[in-house]
Amino acid sequence: MACHPVTPMGEADLGQHLARQGLDLTVRITTPELADPDRVAARLAQGPALIDTMSAADQACIRAALGRVPGRKLLIGASSVAEILGGARAAGTPAKVGPRDGGTLVFAGSRSSVTA
Known about the structure:
Elements: H1 14-20, E1 27-29, H2 37-44, E2 49-51, H3 56-68, H4 79-90
Parallel strand pairs: 1-2
Helix pairs in contact: 2-3, 3-4
């Protein structure tokens, strides 16, 4: 990420990196918290959150937590976001992260010339 053509990353802490770009993430959900979907849901309800995933189990916890938080959600991230949303469908479980009366809009893209 240090050589990313649009937003080079000179800081390993993603929260600090995003703050420098103007995104205020008041909630940081840590890896140990990802063992409890109810705790993650409660933390998500506090405001914009930064979550890092390291495993399919982490993603499953986030998927379950998102289903417990009412209202619309905006998810921004790497391929893990698509895996969280798509993983529920792949496992045969209906995704509950979108609006209750509609579908889920997913936009994936990159401004990097490498992935253009």
